[in-house]
Each structure stands twice: as structure tokens, then as C-alpha cells.
Design goal:
single chain, about 230 residues, alpha/beta, Rossmann fold, Arc Repressor Mutant, subunit A, 2 domains, five-stranded parallel β-sheet, about 20% strand
């Protein structure tokens, strides 16, 4: 049984989330503060964390950053919940290492679809772990999930890594945003394509000059080419 940790200070919402998760066959753990959520994550090592952005004492972004800086918890997917939908909130959330982002009020059905998609892709392993892909100065090591640019290792989130790998595997081809949501994020429903744009922006910034190889094809999507 997959274990989902809920870090949410609104008691009614936390209980509703727990109820729906358990109805879907998940084990739900509930905490109400950032610090408590961080401690529970380190102790229980859940398969997924639903993390509110606005928490008492310790913000959700701080919790996410702490999770990502620990070898023990850095691989746990984080889906951030927030009442604010500003672009800056999405960017900050993704910068801290969140895998996905949903704005309150949200439909419980969409949330459960996103949870299933995240858990499905987090359990997938590369077919050939010995493979290396080189694009210009970018080298992707599929075995270690390491990315280097001009010999310098770049720290990417799980989603950023999968996005770069997918674009590299389809180099020279234009990938529509909807297709990226389906194949990278695992969504089999209509999602928010701004999620793709935000991740591409973050990925380009982390890759430095090599980020220019990710081309925007206006009205369609993105492609990676030398």
C-alpha cells in the first residue's frame, strides 16, 4: 500500500484529503505544521507528500528545500498545495524541488489523477541504465541520473531530469506541451500547460548557456537541438 503524507494546517481539508486517499487505497498520514511534516517524512519515508505552501512556523517551500537537501528524502515526490496561483509561487515551489503544483480550490478527482500519475512515473526505471546521451556540452548519464554541462554536474529535480531526458531522446522534434504533460508528467487528462513552461524556464536557467539548445516553437511546444 502506497503511503501519502499530508502536510496541511486546515484541519477540514486535511481530513477530506485523508478520507479520499484512503478510499483510493492509499495509507494517509496527516500533520499540521511544516516541522512536524518534515520529521514525519524523515521517519516514515512516504511514497508521496502533499505539502501546503502556507504553513505555520515553517513554510512549505522551506520543508521542500530541506527534503531535497537530504539523501534520505530527496527522492520523495512532492505535490504542493496552495491557495495562491501566482506565477512567482509556482516558480518558487518548483525551484525548491516540488514535482507538481495545484491551486486551491481544486477538484478531488483531478488531485487523485495527479497523485496516480506522479506515483506511476516515480516507480518507473530507465530501460537501459548504462546509456549516456550527449547533446553539445550536455551529458545525461541514465544510470546515475546525473547531468553534466561542460563537465560540471548540474543539480536537477526529478521532473527537470525527466523533462531533459525526454527532449534529448526526441532531439530535433517539436514536442507539444500537452504531449509533455502526458509523457513526462504522466497525465492522461488535460493539465495546466503553464507547468511545462515553468519547468522549461527553470531547466534552461540551470543549464546556463547550454539551455539555449531548448528552443521554443511558438504555438506548439519545445524541442532540443544543437
Amino acid at each position: 500500500m502506497k503511503k501519502v503524507l499530508i502536510v496541511e494546517d486546515e484541519r477540514d481539508l486535511a481530513e477530506l484529503l485523508a478520507y479520499n486517499l484512503e478510499k483510493e487505497g492509499y495509507q494517509a498520514l496527516v500533520t499540521g505544521t511544516g516541522l512536524e511534516g518534515l520529521e514525519t517524512a524523515r521517519r516514515e519515508l512516504p511514497d508521496l507528500i502533499l505539502l501546503d505552501l502556507m504553513l505555520p512556523g515553517m513554510m512549505g517551500t522551506e520543508v521542500c528545500s530541506s527534503l531535497r537537501h537530504s539523501d534520505k528524502t530527496r527522492g520523495i515526490p512532492v505535490l504542493m498545495l496552495t491557495a495562491r496561483g501566482d506565477e512567482i509561487d509556482r516558480v518558487v515551489g518548483f525551484e525548491m524541488g516540488a514535482d507538481d503544483y495545484i491551486v486551491k480550490p481544486f477538484s478531488m478527482r483531478e488531485l487523485m489523477l495527479r497523485i496516480r500519475a506522479i506515483l506511476r512515473r516515480s516507480g518507473q526505471e530507465p530501460v537501459n541504465t548504462e546509456r549516456q546521451i550527449t547533446m553539445g556540452t550536455i551529458v545525461i548519464d541514465c544510470g546515475s541520473h546525473r547531468v553534466t554541462v561542460a563537465g560540471v554536474e548540474i543539480e536537477l529535480t526529478s521532473t527537470e531530469y525527466k523533462l531533459l531526458l525526454y527532449l534529448a531522446e526526441h532531439s530535433g522534434r517539436v514536442m507539444k506541451r500537452e504531449l509533455l504533460l502526458q509523457d513526462v508528467w504522466g497525465y492522461n487528462f488535460v493539465g495546466d500547460t503553464r507547468t511545462v513552461d515553468t519547468h522549461v524556464t527553470r531547466l534552461r536557467n540551470k543549464l546556463g548557456d547550454a539551455g539555449e539548445m531548448i528552443k521554443t516553437v511558438r504555438g506548439f511546444g519545445y524541442k532540443l537541438e544543437e
